[in-house]
Amino acid sequence: MPRLGGLNGLSYPTLDFINLYLVKRVVRVSLETVKIVENLPPLNDMN
Known about the structure:
The protein has one helix at 12-39.
């Protein structure tokens, strides 16, 4: 496996796994945030 010198010898598959995990996490958090925002009543209804 090719190794990257600057990243403490982490192999590419490991980096891909970490990146994929972070992307999935960010996407999940974003979707949950959108869901929460959509469930909030419009601001003009709160007055």
